[in-house]
Design brief:
The protein is α/β, with parallel strands linked by helices and 361 residues long. The protein contains ten helices and 19 strands. A hairpin with a 5-residue loop joins strand 15 and strand 16. Helix 8 crosses helix 9.
Length: 361
Amino acid sequence: MGGLHLILENGMVFEGQSFGSEGDVTGEIVFTTGMTGYLETLTDQSYHGQIVLQTFPLIGNYGIIPSDFESSSVGPLAYIVKTPCQSPSNFRSEGTLDRFLKEKGVVGLYGIDTRALTRIIREHGVMNGRITKTTPLEVSLEEIRSYRIKNAVPNVSCAKPALHKGDGSKYTVALFDFGLKENIKRELLKRGCDVWVLPWDTSPEAVVGLEVDGIVLSNGPGDPADNIKIIQNLRILMQTGIPIFGICLGHQLLALASGFKTHKLKYGHRGANQPVKDLMSGRVYISSQNHGYAVTRESIDKRIAAEWFVNVNDLTCEGLWYKHIPAFSVQFHPEACGGPLDTAFLFDLFLERLGERKHAA
């Protein structure tokens, strides 16, 4: 472990200590407010291209538990915590956070004032930064400012289709991997679905050829509007009559395919305590979220879709119910391992849709 600098694009500098892997890294700094779930955060591919800051001060206290991972690799470029626990206590633990980051080649920074950094991001918005041993005066701020996440979804999606058999094989579902969280697949499997996990660029013809009962669009990283090919493919799939369920990035892509717009939030929603209101029932749910973009409410054509959920804190769109096709989508994570399971019923609602279509056929 040694000294490190975090240099923000506005010139501010934080001095801390190194843990995990060593090296220089530049990325978009985002914060997450979860008190637990750091393993799910680290293995969430939606953080691709980003440096993740944990607001909770002690991270790593229950160790490393591979069965809790959301993917086989680490999503973030780097990881910032106040204090990394060096002596985890958990009967399921298989190692320390420090060793895990070293094995995965992920740079870690600790010992900075994480509260102060979080307040800066909240006030000024998400910004780029560089973690480095280099003297700050020798670092180009313009180079830090110019960083942008590119080809995010192709970089994290699977390379080829894979079939996973569920318990009972009640339905067959196509699950697009845009940076898939494993628990989305688990929720479908335990409900008796056979799941085809598909690469991001799978053609509509190939999906229809699998004779699936439904389509799930996963979470993923980056600017949703960058995914032109996916949006074009979704426009075709939306006309097939196959029920569609969009989650997080999948929600945004479905909206873009419908002609709506998305925009970047000031500092995004990342954590396990985001309140969302169901506009149909009036009920509020606590949800787990990880996104930096949102569907622009003013762009939603009410003839095409009704706004279903809104974020209680900032009134951003959190869900859409489509009127003329069997599709719905949510911005939050109903599978929510590392967070509340209040909205897991959405998977049951999706299966009801599949049953209705099957019985009508």
